[in-house]
Design a protein that fits this description.
Elements lengths: L10 E4 L11 E5 L8 E2 L3 E8 L5 E5 L8 E6 L21 E2 L7 E6 L5 E5 L16 E2 L1 E2 L13 E2 L13 E6 L12 E6 L12
Antiparallel strand pairs: 1-9, 2-8, 3-7, 4-5, 4-6, 6-8, 9-14, 10-13, 11-12, 13-14
């Protein structure tokens, strides 16, 4: 049976460290100055310059080729301790995205533990790479918006980038997610770990 094409960006699969993942997140701000990017559940983010007046650090959407701070797993319809909504009009709870145009800062819950194991679909394009030999390769990913305001991220692993070496690539492929009807080939769901995390190693401040 062929794999189904159902991308969702990064989906949290399990903790990867000695201590089980406790579902903790860190609250980050997306400033109004970001008028380019829309954000969806399952999008990866990196650090951005500065923070808001309450001390929450800013993040911005990644490009798929760089170090990652973490992944959005929650979006606040309103920010606690702040008297205004995170948008020009109040967000409904069923909306789980941040629009490109922002009248006020938005706040996102980011899973930024670098040991988390994620699940992500490949793009199904370079079929020669979608084989068992690609386990333990590194890869980049293609950043894609969700289709609607209630969609998850549509980002996918860039199959043409799967390769040995490439220590600066952001993802480490840990093999297939052990799901029913998931096999090597187009649109396979892979277990991945963040290979280049902003919270490990040494990175310059911004």
């Amino acid at each position: 049976m062929a794999n189904t094409n159902t991308p969702w960006g990064f989906a949290l699969l399990r903790g990867g460290g000695a201590t089980p993942y406790g579902q903790q997140t860190t609250l980050y701000s997306i400033p109004t100055s970001d008028s380019t990017n829309a954000y969806y559940m399952g999008d990866a983010v990196k650090a951005a310059t500065g923070g808001d007046t309450n001390g929450y650090p800013n993040v911005v959407k990644t490009t798929g080729t760089e170090a990652i701070r973490g992944v959005i797993i929650g979006i606040y319809p309103t920010q606690p301790y702040i008297a205004y909504s995170g948008a020009s009009a109040a967000l409904a709870l069923e909306f789980n995205y941040v629009p490109a145009t922002k009248a006020n800062p938005y706040y996102v819950m980011v899973a930024d533990d670098p040991n988390i194991i994620w699940m992500m679909q490949d793009d199904g394009i370079t079929t020669a790479s979608l084989v068992a030999a690609s386990c333990n390769f590194n890869a980049q990913y293609t950043v894609t918006n969700g289709a609607t305001t209630v969609s998850a991220s549509a980002s996918v692993i860039l199959s043409s980038s799967m390769a040995s070496g490439n220590a600066t690539y952001p993802l480490k492929l840990l093999g297939l997610a052990q799901l029913a009807n998931n096999a090597f080939g187009a649109y396979a769901k892979w277990q991945v770990r963040i290979n280049v995390s902003e919270l490990t190693g040494s990175f310059v401040g911004i």
